[in-house]
Amino acid sequence: MVVTDGEETCGRSPCDLAKQLHETAEQLTVHVIGFRYSNYSWTGGNSVMDLRCLADENNGLYIKANSEGELIEALEKTLDCPMVSQAPLNPIR
Question: Of 13, 24, 25, 42, whose Cβ has the fewest other Cβ atoms within 10 Å?
Answer without folding.
Answer: 24
